[in-house]
Write a structure and sequence with these properties.
Blueprint (H helix, E strand, L loop, with lengths): L4 H7 L4 E2 L4 E2 L1 E2 L14 E2 L2 H14 L2 H15 L32 H15 L1 H26 L6 H18 L2 H21 L10 H15 L4 H21 E2 L4 E2 L13 H11 L30 H4 L10 E8 L8 E7 L4 E5 L1 E3 L7 E5 L8 E9 L2 E2 L3 E8 L2 E8 L17 E14 L4 E3 L3 E4 L2 E7 L3 E2 L2 E2 L1 E6 L3 E17 L6 E2 L1 E8 L9 E5 L2 E6 L2 E6 L7
Antiparallel strand pairs: 1-2, 3-4, 5-6, 7-8, 8-9, 9-11, 10-14, 11-12, 12-13, 12-16, 14-15, 15-25, 16-23, 17-18, 18-19, 19-25, 20-21, 20-24, 22-23, 26-27, 27-28
Helix pairs in contact: 2-3, 2-4, 3-5, 4-5, 4-6, 5-6, 6-7, 6-8, 7-9, 8-9
């Protein structure tokens, strides 16, 4: 049962620190930006500014007094020196100033700035004249940080959020330059999206919804900038169409491939958003991981608009018995370098891939869902690449898919990071590891292994067609296994004593094969074939094929 706002606020009382006037929570690091280890109690700036908004929404005298104190504590952490490159941003945590982060996160000008817009537009009376002036000054600094950074339109969610913050700030500050900038920024984003074919941050269970909510933020907070309002309305309609296209009613999931995901299943807040805006009893998915028992405060000040009627039905049922959706998400002038997705959809299965991608922990280059035989969660099939058990960004893949079958081929990358796509790459390009493996996982409570290469759950099975290969002069081997709630088949590129390997254009990789998702009792197809062609190789499976360089290349 969901708590109402007052219950949410009262549940956090035990986490409020009167010394700092901030809520505390347990740090869960994604592995970048912060040096604070997991498990340490911290006061998050984003959590706290939205806690202040929630207090103001409740509106009582006691709540407003605390909201003022919390807001002052958050404002005090902003970088205010205009000569500092981080001018206008905040740290993630009170305990770790911006100067100590590794590196700072410039997105915090957008995230905190958005909350300040709500505070000034909707709760000015609750914070009083003096604090309103301080919040306005902080918002102005955040807006100029966003203006100065000027992210490209391929950074989807921040490109839209920055337009919301600068657009609202421009009206509050009566600054025509910021207003014009916001309108131009969103119009540029719309043109860019039309040129590309879709959102660059494609099918993200997190950021597609963030992008949609940011269009709602503009429509809620911006009052007179008609160019910005019109662009936001157009963009909102388009994003709803993108979500509806790859939503799968039987599993309650957003299909693959996915550009940025933080979990293996659609987050509860996204499910609740879809239920609220469509008015449909959509399927919810229990979390695959048990909570540590801590309830982190989360408040959404947006008034969500209803789902457009023209796509609403798509959330209730799949209209066709089978459908193959092909779409370009990132368009490149060089042949073969565009990012194009293929998703096969039936009433009981959704299985998708992207033609080229890396294995950043947020990427899902091959992903499928179908109802499992047991439990509340659907079966989830995923392709990963692991270095010493962690997702590895400097491995890349090329994929070609037709309906329920896909062929894949690996190559290492010369310009990506380690755990994070843009961070952690050694200065000398030498990565250290004791194991590298391409892994295919099937998460389901009833998963079983068959024949060493087949993962079965419910009415479907994922068959991994294994081919011989090599990495850095050594042969690969295939193996399978099972963990607590998932089975896996993997190609082990290397396992043994720790090695240091230079990821440059001399590093050779020839690793490929095929995947097909079949009804549990269906016969398995013939094996794909590997053919080497000079400095490249091809994986062919009937009429389906994919080509890949045999040596490491750049991502772009």
């Amino acid at each position: 049962m969901m708590m109402n706002l007052r219950e949410m606020v009262e549940a956090q009382e035990k986490n409020f620190n009167p010394r700092t006037n901030l809520l505390e929570e347990v740090a869960h690091s994604p592995g970048y930006h912060t040096r604070i280890p997991d498990g340490v109690r911290v006061s998050a700036t984003r959590t706290n500014i939205y806690y202040a908004l929630a207090l103001l929404k409740l509106g009582g005298e006691k709540e407003c007094v605390r909201a003022v104190a919390v807001t002052r504590s958050v404002l005090a952490q902003q970088v205010t020196d205009p000569y500092d490159a981080a001018y206008g941003i905040w740290p993630w945590y009170y305990e770790e100033p911006v100067a100590k982060m590794a590196p700072p996160d410039w997105n915090w000008a957008d995230f905190i700035g958005a909350a300040l817009c709500h505070m000034l537009r909707e709760h000015r009376e609750g914070i009083g004249t003096e604090l309103a002036a301080a919040v306005t000054a902080a918002l102005e600094r955040a807006a100029w940080s966003i203006f100065r950074r000027n992210v490209r339109p391929d950074y989807t969610n921040i490109a839209i959020m920055g337009a919301a913050v600068t657009g609202c700030a421009g009206e509050i500050l009566r600054n025509p330059l910021l207003e014009e900038y916001a309108a131009s920024r969103l119009a540029t984003f719309l043109r860019y999206m039309e040129e590309q074919g879709g959102l660059n941050e494609y099918n993200s269970p997190t950021y597609t919804f963030v992008a949609l909510r940011e269009t709602e933020r503009i429509l809620q907070l911006v009052r007179s900038n008609q160019a910005l309002i019109e662009s936001a309305g157009q963009l909102r309609e388009f994003i709803w169409g993108e979500i509806a296209k790859l939503y799968h009613p039987a599993t309650g999931q957003l299909g693959g491939a996915q550009s940025r995901a933080y979990s293996e299943y659609l987050p509860p807040d996204a499910v609740e958003f879809l239920r609220e805006t469509t008015g449909l009893p959509l399927r919810a998915t229990a979390s695959a991981k048990k909570s540590d028992g801590e309830l982190v405060f989360s408040y959404d000040p947006l008034r969500h608009l209803p789902c457009p009627e023209k796509v609403r039905r798509r959330f209730a049922e799949i209209e066709l018995p089978e459908q193959e959706i092909r779409q370009c998400y990132i368009r490149r002038s060089q042949p073969g370098m565009s990012f194009e997705g293929t998703t096969f959809v039936t009433p009981q299965l959704i299985f998708g891939s992207i033609n080229r991608e890396c294995f950043w922990t947020q990427r899902r280059p091959m992903l499928g869902y179908w109802p499992a035989g047991q439990g509340s969660r659907p079966a989830m099939f995923r392709m990963r690449f692991l270095k010493d058990g962690r997702d590895f960004s400097s491995a890349g893949v090329r994929i070609a898919q037709a309906e329920n079958r896909a062929v894949f081929a690996l190559s290492m990358l010369t310009d990506r990071g380690d755990w994070h796509i843009g961070l952690g790459r050694p200065a000398d390009g030498m990565f250290s590891f004791s194991k590298l493996a391409l892994r295919f996982e099937l998460a389901a409570e009833d998963v079983t292994l068959q024949d060493g290469n087949t993962l079965l759950s419910g009415m479907f099975k994922a068959v991994i067609h294994e081919l011989p290969g090599r990495f850095d002069g050594g042969s690969i081997r295939w193996q399978c296994g099972r963990d607590a709630d998932r089975g896996w088949v993997e190609a082990v590129l290397y396992e043994g004593e720790t090695r240091n390997v230079l990821f440059d254009d001399t590093l050779s990789t020839v690793v490929g094969g095929g995947v097909e998702i079949l009804p549990a009792s269906a016969a398995v197809s013939d094996e794909p074939q590997l053919v080497e062609q000079g400095n490249s190789y091809r994986i062919r499976w009937g009429e389906l094929y994919v080509d890949s360089p045999s040596f490491a290349v750049s991502y772009e």
